[in-house]
């Protein structure tokens, strides 16, 4: 038993000794470096492989000496350990993608790992073959600007195309960068196939909108593609063979861009008009549509006017606001503008579509002011204007509104009454002029007697009223808005926008005890009578909700809390005023 334990201890010591011996024997002794191609082509990547004969930390390799003549791309690290007859071997491999910066003979310097150096490599770099040659690369990048010379804030489009004739496993194409400019990708990547000099390529196309904000000469950095391509297996047997991948990096060409400053002619054109913002464009137009359906415009009914601003060579963010000024008696409710943009013949075309709801408070002829936008034509280098001329619309009385009809009848009755009184007075004066002197004296006595009788009758009538009022109990007059007030509150609580709008004027007329021609027939007059900002805001919000296009004719949710609070506050105020001014009869 003791011999068995002693045997195990001896074997363990021998194994430990061999492991320590193998580790010391396999310590780092050499570093080697190789490249996958020599000579190499400009803007085409090569793979530098650095191998150390030991298990080394991946951060031990310093690649900064390569930055002088190369662009250092993706770096991958792998380790391998094998053991044969108690002999262990370890290796660590670094694969580094390098893109030469210039043509000529370049030196890959010696690289150091834990005091061991690789041998330097002399690399010859040649220029790319011209495109009319048959020696096309398997992967290359082309880039093109729609305009290489633009004004400040003038948009130009950059088109990047990645051509490849090999199978890609993965890849990434860097986005363009330009100091002092905004860069925005337009749309999705487009894929297509093409044949160049008898060789089929798959093409991935990307488009960017570039808007410089500073004048001067700039250089767009060359785009770079980094990825992995599929390589055929180098194993002899095709059975159970696996595809191999190879990292690649391709560098495109840089592009120069000249940006011109804003012309002095535009700066000095109209410096006092803030609407003359700098809008460099190839084409800018204004267009309008009316949603009238051939019907007459009526008081209280919304009139929809749609204005479309179209500009070529401007982004959505650069489109100016469309301002429509209000006219007396005609309120304007603008909807939120809708923005669109798309590519047309390699030019970016942007649109702003905005709807305006016009509501007339009374019948009449209204003049809509001119709408003008000043812009700079980059084709002719001249200042131009996009204009919607001044326009007149006629609004008629709405036959569905009884208030306006009653008001007209009442006015006509007043005119008839005044006419009748005037004719009667004229006849009396004529009679007085034609009668003899004796008749005039008798008439004077008759008039005096009638006046005395009327005075006595009035005196007895007032005395009788006072005696009756003394016997009756005093009752304070209570304010009652009627059913319209209750229905209005219910409509606000239920969110019934149209019903609430229809009940505002009846409630206010009943609350103020107005009738006939004195009734309030417009919401503008109602806001003036109430004279409360909360009530005005609530009515404006309700009209905007009903007449705006986005609200879908009032079918969307409307919260009536604001109007409810404003109506209740005004009703309470009217009750207090009515209570304080109640009439008290003397006994």
Please explain how this structure is put together.
This protein is α+β, with helices and mostly antiparallel strands. The chain has four domains: 101 residues, Immunoglobulin-like; 122 residues, Sandwich (Immunoglobulin-like), CATH 2.60.40.740; 118 residues, Immunoglobulin-like (Sandwich); 98 residues, no CATH class. The protein is 28% helix and 36% strand. The strands form nine sheets. Strands 21, 23, 24, 25 and 26 form a five-stranded antiparallel sheet that branches. Strand 14 and strand 15 form a beta hairpin. Helix 5 packs antiparallel against helix 6, helix 5 runs antiparallel to helix 9 and helix 8 packs antiparallel against helix 9. The longest helix is centred in the last third of the chain and has 35 residues. The chain is elongated and about 155 Å long. It starts with a helix and ends in a 7-residue tail after the last helix. The C terminus is likely disordered.
